[in-house]
UniProtKB/TrEMBL annotation:
Residues 259-301 form the DHHA1 domain. Residues 324-391 form the Oligoribonuclease NrnB C-terminal domain. Gene3D superfamilies: 3.10.310.30. Transmembrane segments: none annotated. This is Oligoribonuclease. PANTHER family: 3',5'-CYCLIC-NUCLEOTIDE PHOSPHODIESTERASE (PTHR42146), OLIGORIBONUCLEASE NRNB (PTHR42146:SF1). Pfam families: DHHA1 (PF02272), NrnB_C (PF26386). It comes from the Bacteria.
Amino acid sequence: MQNQLFTHNDLDGVSCGILAKYAFPTNIEVHYHSVNSLDYQVEKFLNEFGKKTNFQLYITDLSVNKENELKLNEYTSKGGNIQLIDHHKTALHFNEYEWGIVKVEEAEGKLASATSLFYTYLVERNFIQPTAILDEYVELVRQYDTWEWEKNDNFLAKRLNDLLYMQSIEEFEESMLERINQQAHFSFDEFEEKILAIEEKKTDRYIRRKRRELVQTTINDLCVGIVHAESYHSELGNALGKEYPHLDCISMLNMGSKKISFRTIHDHVDVSDLASKYGGGGHAKASGCQITKEAYKEFVEKPFSIKSLKEDSRNNQYNNKVRCSHYENKEDDQFLLYQDGKEQWIIEKNHVLLPEAHPSFETAERFLKRSFSAGLSKDEKLIDYLVQSYDGMK
């Protein structure tokens, strides 16, 4: 029987391809796809081989549209062999079919990746025998794809993804298969360590530049940060989310590929729901969609005239979010955040007290930043504001 694999072109999907080539070294044809090119490939497969049953088709880390879903089910009813393995919640309905395996979480309660699910599938069917290096590699991919690497400070997982995007998929495949077959445990070689260190410095510079271009707006009741970015989406989205925790999510627009990537650091926000409103999907904390006409209007046209978000001033001595903090936005509004005699936190805007009172500094600052796109100002702005307030009391 001839084997074919259609899989995603990110680290999780490519690693499914690596596992497939490890399991079927002489009998597997692997095709890597974006979310939007899969359905075309499936239609092509069904047109060419729809009447043949000597094929085993694997689909991993991606799911097909409704039309192809029905066609694949019809193909299996006539003896065709299909196995779809995915971990996105938008694909859970494929579990209704005998040929679908979709799990958002693994049995032990940790989040699943397509690679970890495919690995379990291949081991349970004796296509491969588990080894220490395979276990380590699959876990690195799983932690990166589910963002557990950050919680665990597992920078080896992040560097594995960096390495993929520094070379072609074919080069990455060859390199990973070679070490899986030859090494007892996973590691990078000396040259890879050096180029990864250089890449990390390049990424940091890119994030610093893009941080100055971020704009803030409200979309579908979410406070959204929008930035145009062609690369480093995972790193950029994560860094901006931490820098601006008052934002519900970060949206990164790539006008060349006409795609939007969504990232969030918050457990209460599910960006796959936001992406689904524009025909996309993905994970709760990382998802994406195409720039449709509706998405263009919300994420490009409407925010076009908005000024970039004011950054918090760094290295202050006095204006440092302790007792009395001064903020400003790019409309030259000034704000003073401080605690009143009732131990509530209140805000002045241009020396006029706002009516809202807040139970903590964090909730007050969140309100301030979400409502007025303000950032912490430099020390001298706090001093000037307090002097003006004192002069006004005379």
